[in-house]
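ok trying again, last paste got cut off:
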Amino acid sequence: MLGRGADDLPDLDRNLFDMDVDSLILIDITARLGTELGRPVPSSSFIEYPTIRAFTDHLVGSWHEGGEPGGYGAEGTAAPRRTSRRAAAGVRRRG
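nice, full thing came through this time. structure:
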């Protein structure tokens, strides 16, 4: 989604805005994720979770808690989870 190949993965802990990702790109990313996941992903999530790792940890955590991405889990927050670089970049396994 960030226009990178699997061999050119971004730093998971670098702020997206420091990687020249602007609000229009983030709106596009959240819209695509919402379509792929079949549930809404608020574009404001990237303000609260501005790195790929923080965002994916939040997204996965809220998904496992049965809540909506964006903090609407059982208690309104998501438990941190580790996400692989490949999963964070949206690269699917072959097979």
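cool. The radius of gyration is 13 Å. Helices lie at 23-37, 45-48, 52-64, 85-88.
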